[in-house]
Write a structure and sequence with these properties.
Layout: E1 3-9, H1 15-31, E2 35-41, H2 45-52, E3 56-59, H3 70-78, H4 87-94, H5 96-105, E4 113-116, E5 131-135, E6 145-147, H6 152-160, E7 167-171, E8 176-183, E9 186-195, H7 202-206, E10 211-214, H8 221-237, E11 243-250, E12 259-265, H9 275-282, H10 287-296
Parallel strand pairs: 1-2, 1-3
Antiparallel strand pairs: 4-7, 5-6, 5-7, 8-9, 8-11, 9-10, 11-12
Helix pairs in contact: 1-10
Length: about 300
Amino acid sequence: MTHVAVLMGGWSAEREVSLVSGRACAEALERRGFRVSRVEVDERLPAVLTRLRPDVVFNALHGRLGEDGRVQGLLDLLGIPYTHSGVRASAIAMHKPTALRLFQSAGLPVPEGRVMPAAEVAEAPPFPPPFVVKPVDEGSSIDVELVLRAEDLARVGHKLAERSRPVLVERYIPGLELTCAVLDGRPLAVTEVAPREGFYDYRAKYTPGIAEHRLPAPIPPRVYERVMEIARCAHLLLGCRGLTRADLRFDPERGEAGLALLEINTQPGMTPLSLAPEQAAYCGLSFEDLVVRLVELAACDP
């Protein structure tokens, strides 16, 4: 019987989401006959894994530590195969400016953006509103600020003045929020995410009923295929493995030229509201099938 240790929790801002993802994955593996150890991650993780000696680690962590290459490096050192991407792909994808530079160099469409000290955004924005301000290395839309008008700068500037780390400022692209999951190098489907109010922030992502998932996305067929190709190329370009999810914006008034790749997530959520499992189900792969497939694809970096 294969022994799988499911890592969850941690101490990033996405801890609660990770706990939900981890419990759902652990239950799915148990239903499929795996021996499962649930591990709520803290500083004792190396000792815990050495004691448990699992055959595979299912990485259900989100955010820093679990998604930025550090846990992946530990698992490589311990020689334990793990799900999702390895050290290099995880670290690059987590640092949005680095990933965007690579995407742009490969010819993938990305929004114009600039990294700058957070405290300087309100006084010296790199371009006029509308624009988006986001941390350089967070997920789940945590601490993302949308500046639509000049009068929003005072409100946002007050919040940003308290941040010591730099931020990424990107031109706002009007239109639709699109996402596409990629499993083992194959794009699954495209979903339009339509918040009923505001934008697709942390609350909209994890509160039932706040955002509508339109699957398949009601966009022109050529744009739909282009989104899947962009997601596939981003996955392969960074050397990702297992499951990823690419997030894009689409301005319908500009047609295919209105697409822009925002980021790639190497640890997509596995909660009841998560987009990647929903797309897998649309393609005929149940949640349990998806989780088992990720275990089958587990590996260490060469």
